Amino acid sequence: MLLLGVVLHIAACFVEGPAGADWPYRDPNTTPWAGFIVLAIHIFRMPAFFVIAGFFAALIEDRKGLIALERNRFFRIAIPLGVGWVLIFPIVNIIFLIGIERALGSGAHTQTANVAIAVEPSSSPWANPQPIHLWFLYYLLMLYAIAVVIIPLCRFAPASLRTFVAQGIHALMQGRLRLLRMPILVALTWLAMLPMQMPSIDTPSTFMPLWHVLVCYGFFFAVGWTMFLERGMIESLKAWAGTRMICGVIVLVVSLALAASWLRSFHSGSDTASPTMQTLLFWSQASIALTVWLLIFGGVGLAERMLQRPNSIVRYFSDSSYWIYLVHLPICVLVVIALRDWNASGMSKVSAAVGISIAISILSYEAVRGTMPQQMR
């Protein structure tokens, strides 16, 4: 999920249309496929990531306790967020400015007045602060803080109530009500997604918490936590895993068609409050909710079937993916800018930029991993 962020952010440079507040730089060789790549990855990547985050947070709490969870997340999440943002945000600003200047120098149309992330070099490097690609760490910290408060409170609940809730969750996740698991998860996800401004889940662009986004990702986090408590259900996901993945891909195509239709109408100036746009958003969110859970459960089932043996390549990229994601954004944009004058198709440039950016990010990982404190590895 983290490595897909590299693909997403490079593809964002090749989306058709002028640059703006959503993404300040566009390559001249745009491609319609870039928009579909960005949207497809965005639909399921972060929901899957928050499910995984919830699962492993529950694992740490179960094996080492709440204090160990707080300490682990401080070193693994809070410090990388704080240090990473202070160092990376000014670099991202400067690189986007370089790209904007190159685009303007070549006569390209760039909406510089609406580019929120770009600031003049003479102002503070941290002016107009926003969480950039590190926003998900910020939201994870809020969810960990909520978990740290809720877990002790739950232990004060009457034993009969805790038993009743645990039995209900068990019945739904792997017991007699398991056939209702998918419909209930899809319905609750769809309800959590209805307050969003556009198809899928809104991406925060400020440090002011978006509570509807926190609730939505908090739901995925809670399901991941529950999946650890109900680990028996993971074994059951092996059955029909391939079918779930195929169905997930099919519904993903439907979701892309609905979301793309909404976005085209939006960019054409349609009123988002109109019945047509509201209906389109309604069904788009419903199909995305179904897509997410089909792909998550299908992906977990396939991973359990295919990745049980130790694999050095998988392990290496698993270990390095966090670092790659932290440092990749300025590298990706700079690589795309460097390839600006290459007269190749948009998809060829996307592929080349992904390969070059990951290679550079891996080299940086190799340069620093020996110096990382053990708690942050």
Outline:
This protein is an all-alpha fold. The chain has one domain. It is built from 12 helices and no strands.
Residues in helix, %: over 70%
Number of domains: 1
Main sheet, how many strands, which sense, barrel? none
- Taken as a percent bin, the fraction of beta residues is under 5%
Report the oligomer.
Answer: single chain
Alpha-carbon distance between the two ends: 18 Å
Verbal overview:
With 377 residues, this protein is mostly helical. The chain has one domain (2-376). It contains 12 helices and no strands. The longest helix is centred in the N-terminal third of the chain and has 40 residues, at 66-105. It is globular, with a radius of gyration of 22 Å. 33% of the residues are buried. The model is unreliable at 110-116 (pLDDT under 50).
